Amino acid sequence: MPSYYLFSLGCKVNAYENSAIGEELNLEGYTRSDDPKKSEVLILNTCSVTATADQKSRQHISKFRKENPQATLVVMGCYSQKHAEIAQSLGADIVLGAASRSEIGKFVQQFQSNHQPIVDVKPSLRHESYEELGVNAFTEATRAYLKVQDGCDNFCSYCYIPTLRGNSRSRDPHAILKEAESLVNEGHYSEIIIAGIHIGGYGKDLGDGSYRLADLLEDLLKACPRLFRLRISSIEESEIDDKFLGLLKNHPNVVDHLHIPLQSGSSTVLKRMRRKYDTAAFLAKLEAIRAVRPDIAITTDIIAGFPEETAEEWAETMAFAQQANFAEIHVFPFSSRPGTYAASLPDTDPKIKKERVHELLDLSKTMRLAYEKRFYGQGLEVLYESYDPEAHFAYGHTSNYLLVATPSDHPRHGEIEKVIYGPKTAAD
Questions:
Q1: Is 164:152 a contact under the CB 8 Å cutoff?
Q2: Taking every pair of C-alpha atoms in the chain, what is the biggest distance, in angstroms?
Q3: What's 195's DSSP letter?
Q4: Label partner for 311 (CA 20 to 30 A): which of 42, 204, 327, 402?
C-alpha cells in the first residue's frame, strides 16, 4: 500500500479530521510519511473561512501538485466544497467536500486503478448526519482535541460556513465517551479540548433535544475521573445556560478559560450580523459567568470594519470591549464571502478597516497585560506541553491559559507543577 502525507489548513476541526483519516488509512495498510515530495498520496484539508483562507488553499493545491506531480492528490474540506472545479483545475486528482472523507482509502484505490479523476462533492450538506471518522483524536504532546459536533445552523450574515459545512449535527455521545476514556486511560492525556464547528449546538438534533453540551461534559467528567483538565474551544453566549454555569461551579477541572465570540460591541452592527444577542445580553452573561468563576479568562473574536460600520458604531465596540474586560481579543478584518448577506452591503474603506484592526489589537495587548498582572505572585498549576532545547525552557499553560516558561535541561511534557507566576515566568 502507498505512503500518504496529510496537511491541514484552518481550524483544529480540520486537524482532527486529518488525524482520524490517517488512523483509518493506517488500519487499511497505508504508511504515513512526513515528506510530501516522497509520498505517493497527498491529502490536503482546505479552509474557506476568509478570502485569505481561499488563497492559501489554492496555493497549497498548486504547491503540492508542482512538488510531487506523480502523487495522487486528494483535496477536501470547505474550499473544495465550494470550488470543486477550481481545485480540480489546479491539479487535484480526487476532490471531496465536507463529506465522504471516511471513504478516502476507497477513492485512492479507485483512482490508482483507472486514473480517472474523482469529484464527490454533495451540492448541499444541510440534511446530513454526523460522519464518524474513527476513534483517534487530534493529539498534541499533552493535549487532545475531541470532536463532538459538525456544521452550523446560525447563518450569521457574514459567514458561509453553514452552507459549506452543512447542518449542525452531533456525534453519538457513546462514541465520544469511549474516545475520551481511551485518551485518558490509555493515551494518558491530561487535557481534552472539546472541538466542533458550533459546539454549543451539540445535542439539539439528538432524540428530543434535551441532552445538550453541559450534559455531555458532565458525563465525560464522570467517565474520566483522572482527567486533569477539560477545555472548550469556543462557545456562543446564547448557549451558556444554567446547566453550563453549574458545570463551571461544580467542576474545577473545567478550565478557567472560555472563548466567547462577540464579533461587535455595537448592538446595531450585531443586528446586521444576524447574531442572536445584543450587547446588554452579552454583558449579563459575562456577569453570570464571573459570579461562579471570578478569575476566569474570557477571550473573544471581534470583526473590524463590518459593512456600513460607522465611526459611532466602532466607538461603541471599543467602549464595550473595555467594559467587558476581556483577557484577550482575536481581531479579524471583515472578509466578504460571496453568497452571504453581508457581501451585498457596501464594504468599509480598506484604510479605515486597517486602522480599526490596529486600534483593536493595541487594546487587546493592553487588556492581556492587565489580566496577566492580576496573577503576579500567585502559584498557578502548569501543564507542560513543549520544550525549547536551545533556550532550555519548558513551556506550558495554566488553567486560565496563561503561557508559562520555566528553565529546564530536559522536556517535561505532561508534567504538572505549581509555578509562581510573574514577569520572569510569563511567556505570552
A1: no
A2: 66
A3: E
A4: 327
Residue 293 to residue 17: CA distance in whole angstroms: 33
Enumerate residues 6+ apart whose C-beta is below 8 A from 285.
237, 240, 260, 277
pLDDT band at 136 (very low <50, low <70, confident <90, very high): low
- Whole-angstrom CA distances from 291 to 130, 248, 251, 401 are 36, 10, 15, 19
3-class DSSP state for residue 76? strand
Q: Confirm if 260 and 236 have CB atoms less than 8 A apart.
A: yes
- The SS3 call for residue 210 is coil
C-alpha 43/C-alpha 64 separation (Å) is 9
Q: What is the C-alpha end-to-end distance of the chain, expressed in Å?
A: 44
How far is the C-alpha of 299 from the C-alpha of 325, rounded, in Å? 9
- In terms of C-beta density within 10 A (0-12 exposed, 13-18 middle, 19 or more buried), how is residue 377 classed? exposed
pLDDT digits (tens, 9 = 90+) for 13-65: 988 888 889 988 998 999 999 999 999 999 999 999 999 999 999 999 999 99
Q: What are the tens digits of pLDDT across the range 195-227?
A: 999 999 999 999 999 999 999 999 999 999 999
Q: Closest Cα to residue 172, out of 129, 138, 126?
A: 129
Work out the number of other CB atoms within 10 angstroms of the CB of residue 309: 25
Yes or no: say if 329 and 364 are a contact pair by the CB < 8 Å rule.
yes
Rounded CA-CA distance 181/320 in Å is: 41
Give the predicted TM-score (pTM) of the model: 0.91
Helices (H), 132-258: 161-165, 173-185, 213-223, 242-250
In this predicted structure, the answer to whether residue 193 has a pLDDT above a threshold of 70 is yes
Quick one: how far is CA 287 from the chain centroid? 25
pLDDT at 315: 98
On the CB side of 376, how many CA atoms lie within 13 Å of its CA? 9
The per-residue pLDDT for range 356-413, each reduced to its tens digit, is 999 999 999 999 999 999 999 999 999 999 999 999 999 999 999 999 999 999 999 9
Helix (H) or strand (E) holding 315: helix 311-324
150-169 pLDDT, tens digit per residue, is 999 999 999 999 999 999 99
Q: What is the DSSP string of 342-389?
A: GGGSPPPPHHHHHHHHHHHHHHHHHHHHHHHHTTTT-EEEEEEEEEET
Cα 184 to chain centroid distance, Å, stands at: 21
Please answer whether residues 189 and 202 qualify as being in contact, where contact means their C-beta atoms are separated by less than 8 angstroms. Answer: no
